[in-house]
Amino acid sequence: MNKLPIKPIYRSTQKGMTFLEVLIALVIMVTGILGAVAMQATAKQASFDAMQRSLASSLAQDIIARMRANDVAVLAGYDAKNYGAGTFVASEPNRCDQVAVNCSSALMLANDQYEWELAIMGGDVTVGVDKKSVGGLVGGQGCIIGNGNSISVVVSWQGRTEIKDNKKVDTCGTSGKKRRQVVVEAFII
After folding, report:
1. Other CB atoms closer than 10 Å to residue 103's CB: what's the count?
2. What pLDDT score does 13 carry?
3. SS3 assignment, position 164
4. Relative to the CA of 182, which of 19, 26, 38, 121 has its CA 20 to 30 Å away?
5. In angstroms, what CA-CA distances link 31 with 35, 36, 38, 41, 45?
6. CA distance 35 to 27
7. 3-class SS at 19?
8. What is the dihedral of CA 46, 47, 48, 53, to 10 degrees?
9. pLDDT tens, 23-55?
10. Where are the extended beta strands (E) located within the chain?
């Protein structure tokens, strides 16, 4: 009988990956890392914008609470423009922050305006020996628009990215594509 010769099974001598496989794996890994870094940067920016919006909303509610606590007769005194421009902070009023101090409605109004503007500018949160302001809104400005007992409190600030400015209240804050606004309407009785 004629036997056919048995051929040995071909065994590869290759061990490990080829250079092309390594390059493809590196490209995929680097793309994933860059995506994670970009996502982290976007999340940090969105977190900052959310913090600014939350602070603006809190400031609007703060001045409404102050207005409700004061005498209705001085309500028109709150209707002033340019809170946050240093108008009221420049002249510190007699502070109504002590129990023993007898504050009239007019003194309470001046104190409220002073404290609200200080909060908008971030002057109420300081750090270091030189008392550098670290709080407040970026380019913050507040406006109170009154119509009898109905009021609108507008808090404007500058965001980090450009958006379409829908000009809710065009007279409050520096208009532009980075302007953000919170408008709170209330009724004071």
Report:
1. 17
2. 67
3. coil
4. 38
5. 6, 9, 11, 15, 21
6. 12
7. helix
8. 90
9. 999 999 999 999 999 999 889 888 888 999 999
10. 126-127, 132-133, 141-147, 150-158, 179-187
- Amino acid found at 89: V
Regarding pTM above 0.85, the answer is no
Among 99, 125, 111, CA closest to 67:
111
Quote the CA–CA distance of 38 and 117 in Å, as a whole number: 36
Q: Residue 2 gets which letter from DSSP?
A: P
Tokens of 103: 């504050």
Tokens of 72: 């209705």
Distance between CA 39 and CA 89 in Å, rounded? 40
The 3-state DSSP class for residue 31 equals helix
| Selection from 44, 49, 76 nearest residue 149 by Cα | 76
How many residues does the structure list for the chain? Answer: 189
* 15's tokens: 């061990």
